[in-house]
Task: inverse folding
């Protein structure tokens, strides 16, 4: 497989797993309680995890650049 195919498949897997995480066992999304859980609990955790991963990636890249 080429690098582009591998990258594309990882992006698709990330989008699918993110969608599954956000809507897991929510039932009816029109319910105010379920919307509250999605917006106030799950979405901030997901965004925090993605941001933390990106920051750690950049930090690792900087360390490798400096130490090499």
Result:
């Amino acid at each position: 497989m080429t690098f582009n195919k591998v990258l594309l498949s990882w992006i698709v897997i990330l989008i699918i797993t993110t969608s599954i995480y956000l809507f897991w066992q929510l039932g009816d999304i029109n319910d105010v309680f379920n919307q509250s859980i999605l917006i106030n609990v799950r979405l901030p955790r997901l965004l925090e995890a993605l941001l933390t991963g990106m920051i750690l990636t950049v930090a690792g890249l900087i360390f490798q650049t400096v130490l090499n």
